[in-house]
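Moderator note: this is an archived Q&A kept for reference. The question asked for a predicted structure of one protein chain; the sequence and the answer are reproduced below.
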Amino acid sequence: MISEELKQTESVKEVVQIIDNGGTAHESPEEVAAKYAYMTAMQTERHNKEDIEAKLQTLMEEGAVFDYPLALEHAESYLIDNLSDASPSHRG
């Protein structure tokens, strides 16, 4: 789900560069922003929408240009998918 290019970044500035260069070969700038926000939000204890919104805001403050509502929509879907996969009803 998370591209190697994004996994290999060591700073927010590197993520901003990927976004501002048009994303990756397989991901739009919004998908990169969403995956970064999701990935970093999952490192917190709460794993919620507010954490994702804060991470997207940080990217924008660092200069990344992307469609915020679309990136948020992507990130929320990753979060929902993760929570669904972790729920007992989806374990076989």
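Archived answer notes: Residues 38 and 79 are 7 Å apart (CA to CA).
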